[in-house]
Structures are given as structure tokens and as C-alpha cells.
């Protein structure tokens, strides 16, 4: 099979071989700039995404999510490592990959001065559909996303949730087998976010699409992803299903808010001595610890802190969350890693 037919039209790369992951990344590295200004964005990222599943790429700002997606969607080249999408090598066959994937960026991609239907028809035409085929596909997608009634109204006047659905529908016009979504629910209100989660699940369950989404919302990854990797500073620090990752942390988490940072350090040493308490960490005035059994250990924790005259403003006991998984692997909590990198990221935008 030739890569390009004489007309320049691509041959069909064919279906994904049975059992082969829809996305495979192995040892991807990427450094931006050189010398003193070099930024190592990826330090050897590897993962595999089963076909027909929702996969989460989770990490704080600057972790390397966008760089990974850019490489997988052929917008950037890795310095080293290999990657394939829909069974196609991203470096050797970028045009094939582009035909097999859809991409929904974080920023709106639709024309607000066009109707929803016009936007979809235009996207279909850009992908080479004939006029009648593009119109039929537009109507199919409007119906699929519950947008049929609004289809002839200006997209710029739609609600944020409807506009996001339009962006997703646009990414699906050419029937890709793999859909990349960058922060799909950023900026949506809670109801629109829940609706978008349901849509994304449906795409995988009912349509057999493989969805790779990036997010820095732990809850989103927990609720939506069949499997996920947590990326930190260009490395995969944890991988598995959300339940597998949380189950690695047996027991509960005790989190105590301490009156001052000095007392928080004192609290750390006090708690480290309480039987059943382990992995004590301190960030500013927050002390966290893993405990074998939260309900049984809490009285001893409170008594120990009280005995050391440590002032508390709040104490909570919770089942392990993905934040705890991140804390265990990255040595700092997710929120703080995100906040720490935020000012630098703002400058980049
Ligand atoms: N074009 C670029 N030139 C220089 N440095 C870059 C460039 N793009 C990204 N970086 C840096 O590479 C690192 C990884 O960035 P990347 O955008 O992949 O992270 P991210 O996890 O997607 O973050 P965010 O959630 O903020 O998009 C960061 O330190 C970032 O500042």
C-alpha cells in the first residue's frame, strides 16, 4: 500500500489491529529551548490507552500534558521516544494520524457569527465531505448532542455548555476513532460540566470512540477516566484506574489545619509518634497523615495534638482521594503544585 496515491489523496490506513492499544507512547522526551533557557517538558513519558476507553492525562499546570498531546496529535515532534495513535506512527505517518483523530481544544473553535448547523457543515466541507454529506452529518451530530432545536441560531448566543458540545461535535465531523480533548470542562458551570461528562462517557461506551482528555481537575479524572496517568514535571508518577490508584493507599487520610506554620511542624513530630499513623506531611498550616483506620485512630490523634498544645482549626478524616495519590508520588499536594506553577503559566499565555 502506498502512503500517497498519485492524486495526493491518502490511502486508508485500515482498522486498528485487534487488541492493539488505540494510543501508545513510549519514552517520549521533549526539551524546549537550549542552554540556560532549556525547559525539559517531558522526561520520558510512556503509557498505553485501550481502544474504546476514556483516558485521563492528569497533572498540575506545566506538568507536560499539552506537550504530550501536541506530540500525539502531530503538532510537535518528540526529541526521543515513539508514539502511535490508531495504530499509526505519529512521526512517520502524521497525515494519516490527523485523519484518524479529532481534537477539541480548550479554547472555543466555532464561529460565533455562524449558526450551529453552519459551523458543522463548514467543518464537514473542510474535511472533504460533499455538500449533501456535510449537511447530513451536521444534522446527525446536532441530534446526537441534543442541539437540533438550536441548530439554526447563532452559536455565539448559545450557552457555554451548548457551545462546548458544538466544539466536540465539530471534532467528530470526520468520524475519527480517537478524540483528544484539552481540559474539556474548564469554565463550565457544575450542571454543564456534569452533562459534558455524560456525553464523553457516552462517546466511549456507545460509539466505541477512544477519548484522551487532559485535566487538572482531580474530580473529573476520578469520575470520567477508565484509566489515567498522573504526570508531574514531565514524568508519569502514577498510572492505573482511579480505584486501583486509590486502593494502593490503604487506610484513610487525616488532615488537620493548624493555627500557625511553626505549630504545624510541631504537629508533624507529634503525629509521627502516634501508633497507626504514617506518611505525615506538612504544607504551610496543613498537616496530612495516612492512618490505618480513621475512626479508630482519630481520638489518639486529637489527644496527642492536645497534649502537645497544638492549636487546631479543623480536622477531617477521608477515604483516599487522587490528591492523596498525587501527594504520595509527587511529595506535594495537587492544589499547591497547581498554584505554584500558575504565575509562570500565566506569563506564557
Ligand atoms: N513553546 C514553549 N517554549 C518553552 N517552554 C514551553 C513551551 N511550551 C511549554 N513549555 C514549558 O514546558 C513545560 C510543560 O508545559 P505543558 O504546556 O506541556 O504543560 P501542561 O501540563 O499542559 O500545563 P497547562 O495545564 O498549564 O497547559 C512547562 O514548564 C512549560 O512552561
TrEMBL record:
Q: Name one GO cellular component term.
A: plasma membrane
Q: Which Pfam families match?
A: ABC_tran, DrrA1-3_C
Q: Which InterPro entries match?
A: AAA+_ATPase, ABC_transporter-like_ATP-bd, ABC_transporter_ATP-binding, DrrA, DrrA1/2-like_C, P-loop_NTPase
Q: Which residues form the ABC transporter domain?
A: 23-258
What biological processes does GO assign it? daunorubicin transport; doxorubicin transport; response to antibiotic
**Which molecular function GO terms apply here?**
ATP binding; ATP hydrolysis activity
Q: Where in the cell is it found?
A: Cell membrane
Bilayer disposition of the protein: Peripheral membrane protein
Segments spanning the bilayer are none
Q: What is its main location?
A: membrane
Reply yes or no: does the keyword Repressor apply: no
State the superkingdom: Bacteria
What UniProt keywords are attached to this protein's entry? Antibiotic resistance, ATP-binding, Cell membrane, Membrane, Nucleotide-binding, Translocase, Transport
Coiled-coil regions, chain positions: none
State the family it belongs to: Belongs to the ABC transporter superfamily. Drug exporter-1 (DrugE1) (TC 3.A.1.105) family.
Read off the PANTHER family from this record.
Answer: ABC TRANSPORTER ATP-BINDING PROTEIN (PTHR42711), DOXORUBICIN RESISTANCE ATP-BINDING PROTEIN DRRA (PTHR42711:SF19)
- NCBIfam families membership: drrA
Name of this chain's protein:
ABC-2 type transport system ATP-binding protein
Lineage, opening ranks? Bacteria, Bacillati, Actinomycetota, Actinomycetes, Propionibacteriales
